[in-house]
From TrEMBL:
The keyword Transcription does not apply. It comes from Marinobacter salinus. Residues 2-77 form the Lipoyl-binding domain. This is Dihydrolipoyllysine-residue succinyltransferase component of 2-oxoglutarate dehydrogenase complex. Its cofactor is (R)-lipoate. The keyword Acyltransferase applies. The lineage of its organism: Bacteria, Pseudomonadati, Pseudomonadota, Gammaproteobacteria, Pseudomonadales. One of its GO terms (molecular function) is dihydrolipoyllysine-residue succinyltransferase activity. It holds the Pfam family Biotin_lipoyl.
């Protein structure tokens, strides 16, 4: 019995998606719940699995095609005898492809799916340096992504220089360019950032914090913390707890704008910006007030792992009331973060750098970090923004304040 393979039902905020990768081809055997196709939206990659044991009959939407919510992308025949390779009935159409495979195998060239080839070109990866795990040794998109993530491309000696040659050995007067279309995620990020700057009265206030107390606390309790909770104690958990307490004191910073209404949230759902190869995503720590330092660290690691593999769900990235972004991990000393609409404020962390500071009339070398709070001036007055940032500074410089709520 034939059934339709449909794209998942997208949330209201997602208009359409793109077929990223077909993991199965017509005539190929599929097991129930086996991944058959990935649909990329402007937020996440959604997976479509086989409804039962059977075979793919037809692919209606190829890789790179645009699909709408619930649209048919292919047909599936349940209970049909599947094969480990395309069906016999397709052999008349296959000779050219088979010849290419044989020639590729003979020449040592890798066989790539269209999505994998595109990703390899975008990252200047030599396909021959990637180990294929797909059918007949085919290099899948996941193989290329894993290769990029592990940074093993630099260690793949022989073929790699050849791939880089056009960029290195350029004839005099030539000005090479490479045009790559934006991914849906990158296009969505661009649209949101431009919208934030055009629609909000955005302003940024700065301060700096002495990180010595937090660093000393981590040094003193790191071993016990890891032994007890099985995870390292980082800086982000302290910033999250400090921000949570500060948000309670300044409700306007924990608010959002909905049309002509100002919505004040009686809870703290803090988004933590995570950088991935596809772009910046902001998973949300729900009810951060009820989370301990270990809970926050574990959740951040979980989100980071999911983001790296493109496995974050849409529900994990929506509904935040405040955002924290850390440019310091890339070496940023100071910056002005852009609002994450419809939120009214975002906190920017930066690189910890030793600087000479005046302390009680004497000069001391202290590990300092610049903090930046960008906020919507329509909702938040300058006084509130400054006081909010000072509250975070005071809690970080005296961590006991976080526990005592003073």
């Amino acid at each position: 019995m034939s059934t339709e393979i449909k794209a998942p039902v997208f949330p209201e905020s997602v208009a359409e998606g793109t077929v990223a990768t077909w993991h199965k081809q017509p005539g190929e055997a599929c097991s129930r719940d086996e991944l058959i196709v990935d649909i990329e939206t402007d937020k996440v990659v959604l997976e479509v699995v086989a409804p039962a044991d059977g075979v793919i009959e037809e692919i209606v939407k190829g890789e790179g095609d645009t699909v709408e919510s619930g649209e048919v992308v292919g047909t599936f025949k349940a209970g049909a005898a599947g094969e480990s390779k395309p069906a016999e009935g397709k052999k008349e159409e296959a000779p050219k492809d088979e010849v290419q495979k044989e020639e590729s195998a003979a020449s040592g060239d890798a066989i790539l799916s269209p999505a994998a080839r595109k990703l390899a070109e975008e990252n200047s990866i030599d396909p021959n340096a990637v180990k294929g795990t797909g059918k007949d040794g085919r290099v899948t998109k996941e193989d290329v992504q894993n290769h990029v993530d592990s940074k093993s491309a630099a260690g793949s000696a022989a073929p790699q220089p050849a791939a880089a040659m056009p960029e290195v050995n350029v004839a005099a007067g030539e000005r090479p360019e490479k045009r790559v279309p934006m991914t849906r995620l990158r296009a969505s990020i661009a649209k949101r950032l431009v919208n934030a700057q055009q629609s909000a009265a955005m302003l940024t206030t700065f301060n700096e914090v002495n990180m010595a107390p937090i660093m000393e606390l981590r040094k003193q309790y790191q071993e016990s913390f890891v032994k007890r909770h099985g995870i390292k104690l980082g800086f982000m958990s302290f910033f999250t707890k400090a921000a949570t307490e500060a948000l309670k004191r300044f409700p306007a910073v924990n608010a959002s704008i909905d049309g002509n209404d100002m919505v004040y949230h009686g809870y703290q759902d803090i988004g933590v910006a995570v950088s991935t190869d596809r772009g910046l995503v902001v998973p949300v720590l729900r009810d951060s007030d009820a989370m301990g330092l270990a809970d926050i660290e574990k959740k951040i690691v979980e989100y980071g792992t999911k983001a790296k593999g493109g496995k974050l769900g849409i529900e994990e990235m929506t509904g935040g009331t405040f955002t924290i972004t850390n440019g310091g991990i890339f070496g940023s000393l100071i910056s002005t973060p852009i609002l994450n609409p419809p939120q009214t404020a975002i906190l920017g962390m930066h690189k910890i750098q030793e600087r000479p500071m005046a302390v009680n009339g004497k000069v001391e070398i202290l590990p300092m970090m610049y903090l930046a709070l960008s906020y919507d001036h329509r909702m938040i007055d300058g006084k509130e923004a400054v006081q909010f940032l000072v509250a975070i500074k005071e809690m970080l410089e005296d961590p006991a304040r976080i526990l005592l709520d003073v």
